[in-house]
């Protein structure tokens, strides 16, 4: 098979060759995202390696986020989300447009006077009532991000309970952001973020800050998110 040829083209110890061969097969889409790998015994035979060598290699690939192991169901190539940086969308929009069921777990929702650091970033007057919403964002049962959004209460209404799409809710009140400033940075997940995202501490994650401005240039969102680095590719078209 082609996979076996890839394996034979590599140099070095067998375990490493196997990891490289499978990694390149996944990266070249030879094995597509979401696809199941053959059952271990069959797969080991196809590759001409022992089951224990294969298993070690699969463990490594799972740790690197390239495959997912689901108990009782086997190994699957992980799905990555390609997100264009050039379109202003929210999490729910992104998921729905991909045919994925967005799920959110609300970890905190509070109304309070705007925290000083947010006031400085957004120029909202001190004392402005804001809604602080901390959510875990999932695709089905898969955790993708941990996110804290701060929005003026006037943008969502006092009776907002934090469920559903925040941007959808804003559309019906003050309006969702029309323009955003966003920065993305690679950081190591600290213990708290690692716990929320269910990754090992020190795993690389994307920390994204977003400040959204409404129709009149007034800030309507101050958000900070940690997206799983093994699930997200931010892509941009850049013209020279
Ligand atoms: C995205 C935004 C976040 C916004 C949320 C609204 C990034 C990095 N962050 O996650 O700022 O609050 O979408 O999503 O893109 P919702 O409409 O599904 O609640």
TrEMBL record:
The keyword Metal-binding does not apply. Gene3D superfamilies: Chorismate lyase-like, Winged helix-like DNA-binding domain superfamily/Winged helix DNA-binding domain. It comes from the Bacteria. Keywords: DNA-binding, Transcription, Transcription regulation. The keyword DNA-binding applies. Transmembrane segments: none annotated. Residues 12-80 form the HTH gntR-type domain. This is GntR family transcriptional regulator.
